[in-house]
């Protein structure tokens, strides 16, 4: 079975600091997509960043970057210069060959002023 | 990016009645859509895959007779919660894939009283 594990239920950091959210996954597939989604209090799912498994280069989107270690099946998210608006629930997710998205349990991130 | 619209955003219904939730892809066609359920402070759990023109496929443990899914066109999937009970109260989210990205509706908060 394909699983996504987020080991940090909750984290708090000061504004402007850098924070890393951990994620590991398990799959036997060789080609797949990995995502980090943000879910603010509105509960709208917002795509933060996406990584294609066949690409070795780590994806980057402005202040957000990932450390993708395919062999270790690890996909962590780094948020640099954190802002108050980054406060949200963050879900690591895996898309399999059937387009199904499997989510981790999430990490609740608090950015403190 | 593509837009997925979900309606209604929230609904309150009496126990024993049925409720229909619509999910529309506004600017792209989606042969496959997905329905998720999210309990408070928990992750998104995949309920079923909605396939245009054919029967939906349900995840293990999801009652197909309670959660009826219809995907009659390339832009519309509906989820009907039949004979709803308080334990069906939850947040329901649909998604559809466009290219290599999944787009999510804004979700429907269902409260059964």
Molecular structure report:
The complex is a heterodimer of chains A (113) and B (113). Chain A is an all-beta fold and 113 residues long. Chain A has no helices and twelve strands. Chain A has strands spanning 3-5, 10-14, 19-21, 24-26, 33-39, 46-52, 60-61, 64-69, 74-79, 88-95, 101-103, 107-112. In chain A, strands 2, 5, 6, 10, 11 and 12 form a six-stranded mixed sheet that branches. In chain A, strands 3-9-8-7 form a four-stranded antiparallel sheet, with no helix packed on it. Chain A is globular. Chain A starts with a strand and ends with a strand. Chain B has 113 residues and is mainly beta. Chain B has no helices and eleven strands. In chain B, strands 2, 4, 5, 6, 9, 10 and 11 form a seven-stranded mixed sheet that branches. In chain B, a hairpin with a 5-residue loop joins β4 (32-38) and β5 (44-51). The radius of gyration of chain B is 13 Å and the shape is globular. The relative contact order of chain B is 0.34. The model of chain B has no long low-confidence stretch (mean pLDDT 93). Chain A binds chain B through residues 33, 35, 42-45, 47, 50, 52, 91, 95, 98-106, 108, and chain B through 32, 34, 38, 41-46, 49, 91, 93, 95, 97, 100-102, 104, 106-107.
Key descriptive features of the protein:
heterodimer, A: 113 residues, mainly beta, 6-stranded mixed sheet, 12 strands, globular, B: 113 residues, 7-stranded mixed sheet
How would you briefly describe this protein structure?
The complex is a heterodimer of chains A (113) and B (113). With 113 residues, chain A is mostly beta strands.
List the helices and strands and how they pair.
The complex is a heterodimer of chains A (113) and B (113).
Chain A (H helix, E strand, L loop, with lengths): L2 E3 L4 E5 L4 E3 L2 E3 L6 E7 L6 E7 L7 E2 L2 E6 L4 E6 L8 E8 L5 E3 L3 E6 L1
Parallel strand pairs in A: 2-12
Antiparallel strand pairs in A: 1-4, 3-9, 5-6, 5-10, 7-8, 8-9, 10-11, 10-12
Chain B lengths: L3 E4 L2 E4 L5 E7 L6 E7 L5 E8 L5 E2 L8 E7 L2 E6 L8 E9 L2 E4 L3 E5 L1
Parallel strand pairs in B: 2-11
Antiparallel strand pairs in B: 1-3, 3-8, 4-5, 4-9, 5-6, 7-8, 9-10, 9-11
